[in-house]
Amino acid sequence: MVKKTHHKLTTKEKKDLRDKQKEKVENLRAKVEELDIDETKKFTQFDELPLSHNTAKGLKESSFVNMTDIQRDTIPLALKGEDILGAAKTGSGKTLAFLIPVIERLLHQSWNEYDGVGALIISPTRELAIQTYEVLLKIGKYNTFSCGLVIGGKDYAYEEERIGKINILIGTPGRLLQHMDQSASLVLDNLQMLILDEADRILDMGFKKTIDSIVGNLPPQRQTLLFSATQTKSVQDLARLSLTSPKYISTSSEMEVATPASLEQSYLVVPIPEKISVLWSFIKTHLKSKIIVFASSSKQVHFIYETFRKLQPGISLMKLHGRQKQTSRIETTVKFSKAQYCCLFATDVVARGLDFPAIDWVVQLDCPEDSATYIHRVGRCARFGRPGKSLLMLAPSEEEAFISRLKAKKIELNKQSVRVSKKKTIQDKLQSLCFQSPELKYLGQKAFISYFKSILIQKDKDVFKVGEFPSEEYATSLGLPGAPKIKLLEKIKDGSANLESALDKTKEHKNKSRQLSHLSQLDENGDELEEEKKAQTKYDRMFNRKNQSVLSENYLSMNVENKLDGDNEEEEEEEDFMVVKRKDHELREDVPQLDTELTSKRAQKKAMSKKLSAKSQGAGHKLVFDDDGNAHEIYELEHEEDFRKEGDALELKKTYIDKEAEVMTVEDSRDKQTVKEKKQEKKRRRQEIERRLREEEEDDASSDEGAFQVVLGAPDLDNDLEQSASESSDDDRPAKKSKKWFEKEAAESTNGIVEIEDTGKLEDLEALTQRLIHG
């Protein structure tokens, strides 16, 4: 095959190529400027838009052909450079609505790697940022722009090294702000486009100050696209700060009410203590489905996942929440996307923007905080016209108020009831699991507290009524012996703490920068404080971490409480660790030794035989140590000349195989002989047992034939019994013991004498009794 040779372009050819590319860009600009916005509303496919050849090719290969409403209304305006405040129902394709303008706008300006970051895309969650990054790779693979993803949980040094060469940057607010503060190579002075995806969720998660800091450090001459499924007051305030004369685009008259038309929505009224059992029953009856179960907190997700995993419902189980490590979150997302039948327990970190294929059911175990959260949760299924079903579990105190909230948004739910035949209770099983596993009990306590706090912090007190929360019953349903104490609730009831201030402190602590907290622990000279100097090495920091296991602190306190009592505990702690504390190594006579009679003969033989003990532990082999003290096999350090002296390698291999085959043949014959002997011994024992049983039956028959005679009614019955027993013993035959309950009847029957030969049957004895009574 002739190898293709690449022709090296001359200077003139390079100039002609640049001129052609420049001419194409100019033609694209002209087509975009000539676009009539009213005419574009009639477009249905991406081919009708003035897009570059590479972008259109990437869309077509990614199977993006038809445009959705939000894409049709947004892309032409964004190509013209307008600021956009977009709103569309979940699952409507907002991602392509801003990714296509990003690529085309940078292409119109002939952007290259030396121009730095030209577009910045901010997503509320890591999963949504990853999904946006993957879509960008698909549709933009034929373009020459570089794109990057910066999210928490990744290697910061790796991102810092490459972030200065990226044209399209996607990330989460916290990590982006960290790079803006610390990465010298990240320069945003030439930024052309800013995209805020799911802006309402970004603000709800407590990133308002972070977004303000990011936007404040960006150049004001830029194009901004802000997308949100719900237009709240905070989103409008953000739009006023970051957008200039924006074009408002909405695909429906009221955004909050938009749910997919192919979605079947229903709800159940379930008491809070029965929710876990109803969820178990639902999963058991939908094993051939792909399900997402939403819970209020990550502690609940963790507890339900661990308990259901031990109970084994018959379907694959997964969990996804914000407290997991980034690698675990990505792995779970990929596995769940590829799975056919699976159940994912998740928090609201999955409720925004993520597109999992072929979701059959969305189950909301806990009531969402508002109708917008409900819309986002159910939007994970029935996407792009596919069918889907949703189920909402409401407590009796939540039904009336929350259903009225949904009806106000024109969302109708069908009320369902649980079939008694399909309902299964797992409360006893959960109690057994918590009793057997302290870790599960600890997780159950954390789940209880987190669920109670999730109700406590909700703003809509008409729906979430803390006073009607059945704490003891709910704790029992989780398998706990009692309801845990909640200090925050006790302080609020006593009036010593304010709910709003406590919640603000919690949120502030959660979103506090670790770098700032570290700086606050330094003194005026920049050195660590005395109490912070304890953990200086990475090993010290590792052992000082909390939550290394679920019960690390609990086990520590248990060990402290269960120390052996002694007068010299403090003195022993001050001793050196090399001091030998035990000196009576010799065995004393008063100390009880191991009773060999309780040990089986096989175990004794194995313990006393060096050959058998070595056989159970594996044959030993010789090792050689190198200059550094590392152990190696002998052949690893053997020279090639020494190896060749032993003979040809193939011959050595054949010799070794033949030798091992002979050993295996001998061992196989021994094993067969051992099995044969065991079978014969087992057969001999069985025959011996059968022989003994036959002898006992013959003895019983012979003893019945020569049974002694008892004369009832005689004045000295005991003497007769002793005499008959002695006579039978002289004949070496076992004597049957007389029935004691005949003595009273015999004493009363003194008129007649009755002789019997056999009193072994109950029928004969009853007949004899009747004769004595009526005779």
From TrEMBL:
Q: What EC identifiers does the entry list?
A: 3.6.4.13
Q: Name its GO BP terms in alphabetical order.
A: rRNA processing
| Record-given protein name | ATP-dependent RNA helicase
Pfam family, any one: Helicase_C
Domain annotation Helicase ATP-binding: ranges: 75-249
Q: Which InterPro entries match?
A: DEAD/DEAH_box_helicase_dom, Helicase_ATP-bd, Helicase_C-like, P-loop_NTPase, RNA-helicase_DEAD-box_CS, RNA_helicase_DEAD_Q_motif, SPB4-like_CTE
Specify the species: Kuraishia capsulata CBS 1993
Tell me, in a sentence or two, what this protein's role is: RNA helicase.
Q: Give the source's domain of life in one word.
A: Eukaryota
The segment(s) forming the DEAD-box RNA helicase Q domain are 44-72
